[in-house]
Amino acid sequence: MACGFRRSIACQLSRVLALPPESLIKSISAVPVSKKEEVADFQLSVDSLLENNSHKSQLDTQDQAQRLAEKLKCDTVVTAISAGPRTLNFKINRALLTKAVLQQVTEDGSKYGLKSELFSDLPQKRIVVEFSSPNIAKKFHVGHLRSTIIGNFIANLKEALGHQVTRINYIGDWGMQFGLLGTGFQLFGYEEKLQANPLQHLFDVYVQVNKEATDDKNVTKLAHEFFHRLELGDTQALALWQRFRDLSIEEYTQIYKRLGIYFDEYSGESFYREKSQDVLKLLDSKGLLQKTAKGNVVVDVSETGDLSSVCTVMRSDGTSLYATRDLAAAIHRKDKYNFDTMIYVADKGQKRHFQQVFQMLKIMGHEWAERCQHVPFGIVKGMKTRRGEVTFLEDVLNEVQSRMLQNMASIKTTKKMENPRETAEKVGLAALIIQDFRGLLLSDYQFSWDRVFQSRGDTGVFLQYTHARLCSLEETFGCGYLNDFNVACLQEPQSVSILQHLLRFDEVLYTASQDLQPKHIVSYLLTLSHLAAVAHKTLQVKDSPPEVAGARLHLFKAVRSVLANGMKLLGITPLAVC
């Protein structure tokens, strides 16, 4: 990737510095697009060469850059070398740059950027990603949206890089809340309402029984007894629970279909209710269990061994907890998938929980606990529909579709389409995902419907419209022009800026693969779309000489291809895919 230019520069540097080219490649970066016409294509930070020298000064670095620039020579690939502020700058032969970039995009297709030398020493791994994880017997809460789309992005990225990825939806289908729900349904449930609108009715029952339990201790006692019966395998209790579970997954599957997301495995806490007993026995055999004054069983996870930090693994009545089942699940997955890395995508409020689970795995002697990772994220604030506060994701998706249909109807240039509702949902989902992914995952953010649906600016709507416009350009002019092209026809500043930006795609993917932050790809795609919008206005295809039209179509096709690649990694289905 970077079409071999990075390696060519590294080879020349290696001869001067007496260092292997491989050790220099990652220090050579494509220069971000600038509004200045004259800008280098690649840059080497001299600081990275001197990082082991603790006595270096800014003056030393600048001097080193100047001396290195004088020792290096231009060739058929590099046409200019200069020293910048603590950097070495390289300009690539324009004709070679144009031909190599566009050829590489065409040849690599969906793999463009992924075949880069930046990934050449990347070992292929078995990776488990646990994400989404809604609680059954409740409608899909909007709070699970972030885990769902972030986990999908991480799985997409790891898979694109060649790793063997297993996507797990670890459903909350066990625990004390099912004692409450089971009791609540026996007290307030109606069969006809359950059949008509299963999860809405179960949600209403759950709200009512929680309210009753606050005022009536007998309801709480009945709930504990129901969950205890579940843990003991009572047939009637399990049959009711199984029905709630089946109805829930049936509805969740429809939500995931709308989101364009799939899982390799639907797992649940219930699967580990028996295995968690084995975990407790193992912890006991190692002398790690301690009983509190209230009768709960805990494990000391403090580094000092003074019980300053404990994790409860069993209630006083003998029933298991979330942490115990998480331990059982981790051990089972290691046995089943022999993963190299396991990633949990869950909100930042669960940070302490995962720290404790990973620490207990280490205490139990599982060295692979070091390879378990929690990817935390912040909270979305202010997500409301026209009807008020949002609780359910289905309401958000319906609102997205409805608002987007209205927007499309109000735009005079919108073409008639076969399935406007489906198109509206694709554009709306892109809008939701881009707003979510623009900042650091750990940050909370304020949701804004107005900002989400802007067709101009840094939005998902703008990305989709750009892609659709480029597709339309190919459909209108593509057939007769996309055979060969003259690189001399793509030397305008707008063309060069796009080519320079396309050079950087592999670096953006590399950065995202290191910190698992989608914002790098989002920022890159938005810049690419803005560059394409400017070029679309100034580099006319219609009425241009065939040679010029063909070259410009090649450029726009490359932009559309890379734009689609990046959108798919983010979990967005590009509109009007060619």
UniProtKB/TrEMBL annotation:
Q: What is its main location?
A: mitochondrion
Physiological role? Catalyzes the attachment of arginine to tRNA(Arg) in a two-step reaction: arginine is first activated by ATP to form Arg-AMP and then transferred to the acceptor end of tRNA(Arg).
What PROSITE patterns would the database entry show?
Answer: AA_TRNA_LIGASE_I
Which Pfam families is this protein grouped with? DALR_1 (PF05746), tRNA-synt_1d (PF00750)
Q: What's the protein called, per UniProt?
A: Probable arginine--tRNA ligase, mitochondrial
- Database matches in NCBIfam families: argS
Enumerate the Gene Ontology biological process terms.
arginyl-tRNA aminoacylation; mitochondrial translation
